[in-house]
């Protein structure tokens, strides 16, 4: 059953990446592959947030959490496109752009994952405190 969730979410993630990439690329006419960078950074944040907030609340079935994380986000983000775009930049002797792309992908991805972790953890703690307060008020 988990395979169905992962498969359907994977289709949706791939389609989302494709259409978002097209939308971003229409307004971007430079060598720097901004669309892939933006998509990968969004994916880093969302996966980390999902892990630290939604999955800890236990409001979704674990199959659905796996489907979203592995299926949707796994197909939404793309290491292979990042790699091919980097190789193309190097092949075209755009060394500075390639280096900027690699470093911004690496450090930006780590930062967005950290940010998603912190935001998710903060949301979880606030939700837990609200739940404890509401249960405490019912016992009075």
TrEMBL record:
Keyword RNA-binding: no
Segments traversing the membrane: 32-51, 63-83, 95-117
Pfam hit, one: CRCB
Topology of this chain in the membrane: Multi-pass membrane protein
Main localization, broad class: membrane
Catalytically driven reaction(s): fluoride(in) = fluoride(out)
Keywords: Cell membrane, Ion channel, Ion transport, Membrane, Metal-binding, Sodium, Transmembrane, Transmembrane helix, Transport
Binding site for Na(+): 74, 77
InterPro entries associated with the record: FluC
Mechanisms controlling activity: Na(+) is not transported, but it plays an essential structural role and its presence is essential for fluoride channel function.
Record-stated family: Belongs to the fluoride channel Fluc/FEX (TC 1.A.43) family.
Protein's job: Fluoride-specific ion channel. Important for reducing fluoride concentration in the cell, thus reducing its toxicity.
PANTHER family per UniProt: FLUORIDE EXPORT PROTEIN 1-RELATED
Name of the protein in its database record: Fluoride-specific ion channel FluC
Organism: Ectobacillus funiculus
